[in-house]
Design brief:
Layout: E1 2-6, H1 11-22, E2 27-31, E3 47-49, H2 55-64, E4 67-72, H3 79-84, H4 86-106, E5 111-115, E6 128-129, H5 140-159, E7 162-167, E8 170-172, H6 187-196, E9 202-204, E10 216-217, E11 219-221, H7 222-237, E12 245-247, E13 254-255, H8 256-267, E14 274-276, E15 285-288, H9 291-296, H10 305-322
Parallel strand pairs: 1-2, 1-4, 2-3, 4-5, 5-7, 6-15, 7-12, 8-11, 9-14, 10-15
Antiparallel strand pairs: 10-13
Length: about 325
């Protein structure tokens, strides 16, 4: 038996693949390499290049590698860009998930861990997000993730699909120097690239009602996130019950200014970030409570902010050396 990881050549998916391997769980990867990298997939893990919009490809992969469960990480993950490309976002995140679920049903694969997003909450009414916080996504990306959760729920009712969805905000760091965040939209790579190119990183607003005036958000280490995906898969494989969704959150968060200070320390590049105006609709503080995940998925923050930044910078420098 093996577990299929969709999007397993991406930043998060590749960490999930390594965590599965560390737990002794055979794995196969499907990825279209639209944002992933074949080099991120370990050489001993079967890699199928293709889109999960291709139902036949999924069915063939499930049968060939005796897949018994799926960790679904693949998707179009750029919330801001999704506003300009809503149809593409829905195709990649909703249609593709439906095709995946059809293929799983055809092959009698009844277990799935869905990599969802805290974007399903939109801008929540309070500072602490729990699983019961009202869902109010404010981008096609957030909407598509919520619809993905609904698809799993409805398949659970219809055919007994056993599932759970993991929601999280900002994933950072590296658990392996061969894997780094290559997103053109995420904070860490944006700041790293600015510094490498001699530009000054920017903070959007420093007059929020927070201790240092900058936004406070959840930042979690990618290896911690990956491990909870593995535990979820193990519990589903063992026939144990799980909640339909879990927040993977820190409970307190980190400010953007603290991030900037930690990056200056890690890189050895002294800088004072430029201050730009606030972005419209940006809340002062949003963090997620992770109590349920701590109870059921061995979730905890195993890495400090310093470790998150240092590991990300080490992986970024290693990539530059390999180039």
């Amino acid at each position: 038996m093996s577990w299929l990881v969709t999007g397993g050549a991406g930043y998060i998916g590749a960490h999930v693949v390594r965590a599965l391997g560390g737990a002794g769980i055979p794995t196969v990867v499907i990825d279209d390499l639209s944002s992933g990298h074949a080099s991120f997939v370990p050489s001993d893990v079967p890699f199928v290049q293709g889109t999960i919009l291709d139902r036949g490809l999924i069915v063939d992969t499930i049968k060939k590698y005796d897949v018994t469960g799926v960790i679904h990480v693949a998707g179009f993950k750029y919330a801001g860009v999704s506003v300009q490309r809503p149809l593409h976002t829905y195709e990649q995140n909703v249609t593709a998930t439906a095709v995946l679920l059809e293929a799983m049903q055809e092959c009698a694969v009844d277990k799935i861990v869905f990599s969802s997003s805290a974007a399903v909450y939109g801008t929540p009414p309070g500072e602490i997000v729990t699983e019961d916080t009202p869902k109010n996504p404010q981008s096609p990306y957030g909407e598509s993730k919520l619809i993905g959760e609904w698809l799993l729920r409805d398949q659970g009712v219809a055919v007994g699909l056993r599932h759970t969805s993991l929601r999280y905000f900002n994933v950072v760091g590296s658990g392996d120097p061969d894997i780094y965040d290559t997103s053109p939209h995420n904070l860490f790579p944006l700041v790293f690239e600015a510094l490498v190119e001699g530009r000054t990183p920017r903070i959007n607003g420093d007059d929020y009602p927070t201790p240092d005036g900058t936004n406070v958000r959840d930042y979690i280490h990618v290896a911690d996130l990956a491990w909870s995906h593995v535990v979820a898969a193990q519990r589903l494989e063992a026939g144990e019950s799980l909640e339909s969704a879990y927040n993977l959150g820190s409970g307190d968060g980190v400010s953007v200014k603290e991030i900037m200070t930690a990056i200056a320390d890690a890189t050895g590049i002294a800088f004072e970030p430029d201050i730009a105006p606030r972005r419209s609709g940006d809340p002062a503080r949003i963090v997620a409570e992770g109590d349920l995940a701590a109870r059921d998925l061995d979730w905890r923050m195993r890495h400090s902010l310093t470790e998150m930044v240092n590991s990300a910078w080490t992986a970024r420098r290693a990539a530059a050396e390999r180039a």
